[in-house]
Structures are given as structure tokens and as C-alpha cells.
Design goal:
Layout: H1 2-27, H2 33-54, H3 57-83, H4 91-96, H5 107-110, H6 114-125, H7 133-155, H8 168-185, H9 191-224, H10 226-254, H11 265-278, E1 282-289, E2 294-299, H12 301-304, H13 320-325, E3 330-336, E4 342-351, E5 358-366, H14 368-375, E6 384-390, E7 393-397, E8 404-415, E9 418-427, H15 428-434, H16 438-469, H17 473-496, H18 506-514, E10 522-529, H19 532-539, H20 541-561, E11 565-570, E12 573-579, H21 583-599, E13 613-620, H22 627-643, E14 649-654
Parallel strand pairs: 13-14
Antiparallel strand pairs: 1-2, 1-5, 3-4, 4-5, 6-7, 6-9, 8-9, 10-12, 10-13, 11-12
Length: about 650
């Protein structure tokens, strides 16, 4: 079992990662599909390299390298997005690569973290350095494992807005790939060889990851303040705008105190027009006479004609106007206006300087939506969506073409007697711009430095081992002798066996038969594959060789089971010797051979019929019957079987089966 795991464990673990990727595609949200797709590409790349290494390395290696290159390209592009400054390639240019992504998800929301990007790059390039396992394999595997573990720690410390979380299927697939690489490296690895180098480099890598975490967390905190900073800026602008407009409204009211008489309609319209030109969010400016009270003038007159003669600007106003007519500046909350719509009303009293009496009040109807639109900076509006709400109703919302993130911050503002909620939601493009390149540069530089430290310690340890290895020369010499003995045994084996079919050859067969007791019954079987020349000519020699191997293995299993020996006689012919069998039993064995080959279902050149064999056999226990005579008799029986239509058995007759 251990030998099987050591030989095929990496391939099985890599294959198990594919169902995890397929299941994750259905179970995970769309934002994780890019990471999941990259894990799937890495799995296929490693699978191709694994298959190439095991079977046809020369023919399949270019194809496997091509798959690896295709997988590496998007991973390198993603890593470049963390390193390249915005002046070289900005967020809009990076997003172009994902305009046709099936889920239409923003680039920032689907981009894997730098930790997982580097870990996947290490996993995909590791099989390329199988010829130099000590220099690359252990340190790359350790780095990929630690980066994955660090990502799991990070995803519990920050919201998934900035880093894609590893779902269970994705994590399981990555763990299987790491385990497959571990199984690949472990059988030939002595821990003492790389243990010291790994311990030193992993200590440095741990310090590096702590440093990276510090810089990255600082940057994340700064990014998380983007929306707060925007809201605070807008709140400050609003406060300044309200203060300026309040001073303008006071000056407007005071300008009528010295008039000596109630304002005329023409004079009121003239001054109000100048005020509205500077503060276009003032929807209505009205003069309310103390007598009545009555609305005497309103600007603009076209939209406020129905107000003239009314008692109030709003039926919901029962306190603010009264306070103004008593001499105090006042304001309402968000109220329904008499002429339709909603707004906030500010009142300023108008005095008679001669008598100090209250002559009336100036009412200013403020449209909150226009006010908030005024303070919203149009130059930066594409990076944020600004919303202003009052009691759950949205009064103002800016438009942006950029994809919006979930990073939103809100402040409470007071206008008049009502509270308003102003919220800023940052776009993914703004978050991308705010992400610093320093943490990624620190990480990549640190990984290269860690690898250099590993190589330094590793080669130092290797040189010391080689120095100590001089003392073990005798043991190595003994191993060389044993290797030469094994090679000699292999040469001897090749001298007695057919290299293609791996069964004994004619020479070994003759030696084996000569050793048999001639007083015992012997059965010689000559076997020929029907129409084999056409198979070679029409299907090709590689197919013919494969058919020969499968037929030979099938025949050998049956002959060996009955205590005999099968050998390749030449070309498509095989010969077998079965001792101690009666003619009837020998015929049954021949029939087993014929049916066994037929059961292989090897398609012939015509594509309809299957490969069959013809058999000629002879049984004897006469000592005077030599092997060449027996082979000739069996060969003649084989000739009759071919004349009789092939796929059959012919017996040469019983020469002598008596005692």
C-alpha cells in the first residue's frame, strides 16, 4: 500500500481536486469563480505534467508545457496588478480583461489576494523543476503552504470586500494539490538534507509575513476610511454652505429694515432674483405681512402666484412663522409646501427701524435635493455615489458609471429642524487606486530573499555532506558492484526473453524443453495470429506491437496457469510447451487460448471483426520425438487450421501415449 501511494498518490490527489473545482463552481458565489477557475487550470496543468512524466515524456511534454504556460499567464497578470503603478496600467485597463467575464463582476471584487496568486504560481511551476528537486521543490512547497495558511488568517481579519475568501471547495482543492506535491517530493527526500535550510528560510519567511501583514493592514485601514473621508468632506461643505446662506438671508431681511415702508412687488422681485442667482437651491422667497398674516410677495412669481394672499407657506408650519413674527429667526423641518412639493423653510423677521415694531417676515424655502447637489463635487462624482435620505426617503442620489462596492459610510446632518442622512459609497476603481503597492513589493522581495537564504544554507549543507561522503567510498563502491550485478542480470534476462512482449524467446524455450523428462507426456502448441500482416500494414506497426503485447500476456497467463511455458517463436507466432497433459486436456487448453484471445476484442483492420488465432498442437511421450520434429508436426497442424478457415485448433495426432 505504501509503495502504491508513493508511486500513484500524487496522481490520485490531483485527480480528486477536479471534482472539488466542479462542485465549487455550482456552490460558490460568482465573485469566487475567477479564483476557482485558476485553481482548476493549475490542477489540469499539474495533471498534464504528471501524465507526461509517467507515460510518454517525449511526445506529451510540449503539450504539457503549453498548458502550463497558458495557466501561468493570467496568474502573472494578476500578480502584476499588485505591483505595477497606476501610471503604467490603471484600473480601467485592468478591467478590460474582464469585460466579457460571464458574471460581469468588477475586477476588484473577483481579484484573488496576492497571497493566493503567488501560491498558485508556485504550484503550477513546481513540476517544471522536477530535475532540480532539492533547489526548488521543498522551499516552493513550504512557501505555498505558508501563503495559503496566511490567507486563511487574513480572511478572518478583513471583510471580503478587499480579499476573496477561500470557500470550502476551493480550499479543499488547494489542500489536495499541496498534498499531491508533498507526496511527489517525500519518497526521495531525506529531511536532514533540507531540514536545516528549510528551518532557516521559514523563520525568515515568518518574519516577512508579519511585516507584510503590518503594511497591508495599515493600507486596508486607510482604504476603509475613503468613504468616511468623503462624507466628512461633504458634511463640512454643507455646514459652510448653510452658514453662508444663513448670513445672506439675514442681510436680505435687514436690507428691508431701513426701507421705511413695506416692500413693493417690483423691489422684492429685484432683490430676490439676485439672491437666487447665488443660491439656486432657494425655491421660493416670500414676504409675509404681519397683518393677517398674509403672503404679500413671492419670487419667482410664475410658480408662486397661488401663494399670494395665503396665510402660510406650509400647512405643517405652526411654530416657526409665529416665532419669526415675534422677532426671532426660525426654521421648520422638512414640510409639505402649500404650492406643492416639500422643503425646509427659514424665516427672518423684518423690523421697522423707526418704531422697532415687527413689520413682517421673509420666508426662504430651501430645496434639500438642490442644496446637496450643489455641495457634491462633480470632479470626483464618478468615484462615489452620494445619497441623501430623510426618514427612509431618498432625496438625492448622484449618478456614477463605475461599479460600486459595499464600502459605505453615513453621517447625520441637520437642516432646519430635520435630520438628514448623507451616505457615500465608494467605487471599486477608487478602492483600487487607494491600495498601496508597497505590501506586494515587500512580499515578492521577501520571498526572493527567503529563497536565496534557502539556497545558501542548502548548498552549504550539501558541500559538507560531500566532504563527509569521502569516508564512505567503500560503501558506494559496494553499491556500484551491486548495480553492475543487477545490470548483468538484466542483460542475461534480455538474452532469454523477447523485449517487445516480455515473454521468453525461442532460445530459452529450447533450453527449457530439453530439461524436461522425456518419459513424461509433452504437448507442443504452435500459435499464429490470423491476418496479422494486414493489421501491421493498415493499422500501423505501433498498433500491431500493442496487439502482440496483449495477445502474449493473455496466452502467457493461461499457459503458466497449467504449468507450461510460452515463448515468442517469431513474428506473430508463439510456441508453448505443456507437460503432463492428456491429448483431451491439451485440446481443452488450446480452446482456452483461442477463446482468451477472442475475448480481448481487439478490432482488426476492417473495423468489424476481431483478432483471432489459429492453433496447431501435438501431444507425445515418446522419447525419440525430438523438439524440431514436434514443432514441425504442430506447424503442419497449424497450416491445416489456417486452410480450414482460421480461428480454430488442429491436432497433429497422438504419436505415442502408451506407457
Amino acid at each position: 500500500m505504501k509503495a502504491f501511494i508513493a508511486r500513484h498518490g500524487d496522481l490520485l490527489l490531483t485527480l480528486l481536486a477536479l471534482p472539488c473545482v466542479a462542485a465549487g463552481w455550482w456552490l460558490t458565489p460568482p465573485v469566487e469563480h475567477l479564483l476557482l477557475g485558476l485553481v482548476g487550470m493549475v490542477t489540469l496543468s499539474r495533471l498534464a505534467m504528471n501524465v507526461t512524466r509517467r507515460w510518454r515524456p517525449n511526445r506529451l511534454r510540449p503539450f504539457a508545457i503549453m498548458i502550463t504556460a497558458i495557466t501561468t499567464l493570467p496568474l502573472m497578470a494578476l500578480m502584476a496588478s499588485f505591483l505595477l503603478p497606476d501610471s503604467v496600467m490603471n484600473y480601467a485597463q485592468w478591467s478590460l480583461f474582464f469585460d466579457h467575464w460571464p458574471e460581469q463582476a468588477p475586477f476588484y471584487s473577483i481579484r484573488p489576494s496576492i497571497l493566493m496568486t503567488v501560491a498558485l504560481i508556485l504550484l503550477v511551476v513546481l513540476p517544471l523543476f522536477s530535475s532540480r528537486p532539492g533547489e526548488v521543490g521543498p522551499i516552493a512547497l513550504a512557501m505555498a503552504t505558508m501563503l495559503t495558511a496566511m490567507h486563511l488568517i487574513e480572511q478572518h481579519g478583513f471583510i471580503s470586500l478587499h480579499e476573496i475568501s477561500l470557500s470550502t471547495p476551493t480550499l479543499l482543492a488547494i489542500v489536495l494539490l499541496l498534498a499531491a506535491e508533498f507526496v511527489t517530493q517525500w519518497p526521495g527526500r531525506r529531511l536532514a538534507t533540507v531540514g536545516i535550510a528549510l528551518a532557516a528560510s521559514m523563520t525568515i519567511l515568518l518574519i516577512l509575513l508579519v511585516l507584510w501583514h503590518y503594511h497591508n493592514s495599515q493600507n486596508i485601514r486607510d482604504v476603509n476610511q475613503v468613504a468616511r473621508t468623503r462624507v466628512d468632506t461633504l458634511s463640512e461643505r454643507l455646514g459652510q454652505e448653510i452658514s453662508v446662506s444663513d448670513q445672506a438671508m439675514q442681510r436680505f431681511a435687514i436690507s428691508w429694515d431701513t426701507a421705511g415702508s413695506p416692500p413693493s412687488s417690483r423691489a422684492w422681485t429685484h432683490r430676490a432674483r439676485h439672491l437666487v442667482e447665488h443660491f439656486d437651491y432657494m425655491q421660493t422667497i416670500a414676504y409675509i405681512d404681519q397683518q393677517g398674516p398674509r403672503i404679500r410677495h413671492a419670487y419667482p412669481l410664475q410658480t408662486n402666484q397661488p401663494l399670494l394672499g395665503h396665510h402660510v407657506l406650509s400647512s405643517d408650519d405652526d411654530m416657526a412663522l409665529s416665532a419669526a413674527l415675534l422677532g426671532d429667526a426660525s426654521a421648520t423641518g422638512m414640510v409639505n409646501l402649500t404650492n406643492g412639493g416639500r422643503g425646509v423653510i427659514f424665516y427672518q423677521p423684518i423690523h421697522d427701524l423707526d418704531t422697532a415694531a415687527i413689520r413682517g417676515a421673509a420666508g426662504f424655502v430651501i430645496d434639500p435635493a438642490r442644496l446637496f447637489a450643489t455641495i457634491d463635487d462633480a470632479s470626483d462624482s464618478h468615484n462615489f455615489r452620494i445619497r441623501v435620505m430623510q426618514n427612509g426617503t431618498t432625496l438625492y442620489s448622484s449618478n456614477t458609471r463605475e461599479a460600486l462596492s459595499m464600502l459605505e459610510h453615513c453621517n447625520i446632518l441637520r437642516l432646519g429642524q430635520s435630520n438628514f442622512t448623507i451616505c457615500a459609497e465608494a467605487s471599486y476603481a477608487r478602492l483600487f487606486d487607494e491600495r498601496s503597492k508597497l505590501p506586494a513589493i515587500v512580499l515578492i522581495t521577501g520571498l526572493l530573499f527567503t529563497w536565496m537564504i534557502y539556497l545558501l544554507v542548502y548548498f552549504h549543507h550539501r558541500l559538507r555532506q560531500r566532504h563527509n561522503g569521502v569516508k564512505d567510498a567503500n560503501y558506494r563502491l559496494r553499491g556500484e558492484v551491486e548495480k553492475r550485478i543487477a545490470l548483468q542480470q538484466e542483460v542475461e534476462w534480455l538474452a532469454q526473453h523477447d523485449e517487445l512482449t516480455r515473454v521468453p524467446n525461442r532460445r530459452y524455450f529450447s533450453q527449457w524443453v530439453e530439461k524436461l523428462d522425456v518419459s513424461r507426456t509433452r504437448t507442443i502448441i504452435v500459435i499464429d495470429i490470423d491476418h496479422f500482416k494486414k493489421i501491421n500494414d493498415l493499422l500501423g506497426h505501433p498498433t500491431g506491437d500493442r496487439y502482440l503485447q496483449r495477445v502474449a500476456h493473455c496466452l502467457q497467463d493461461i499457459v503458466t496457469c497449467h504449468g507450461g511455458l510460452l515463448a515468442r517463436f517469431g513474428g506473430e507466432e508463439f510456441i508453448a510447451c505443456l507437460p503432463d497433459l492428456s491429448p483431451e486436456r491439451a485440446a481443452e487448453v488450446g480452446e482456452q487460448l483461442r477463446r482468451g484471445v477472442e475475448a480481448l476484442n481487439l478490432t482488426r483492420h476492417d473495423g468489424h471483426t476481431i483478432v483471432t488465432i489459429s492453433i496447431g498442437l501435438i501431444t507425445t511421450r515418446r522419447a525419440s520425438d525430438t523438439l524440431p520434429d514436434l514443432i514441425q508436426s504442430a506447424d503442419q497442424a497449424l497450416y491445416r487450421a489456417k486452410l480450414g478457415g482460421r480461428n480454430r485448433i488442429e491436432m497433429a495426432g497422438i504419436l505415442d501415449t502408451s506407457t
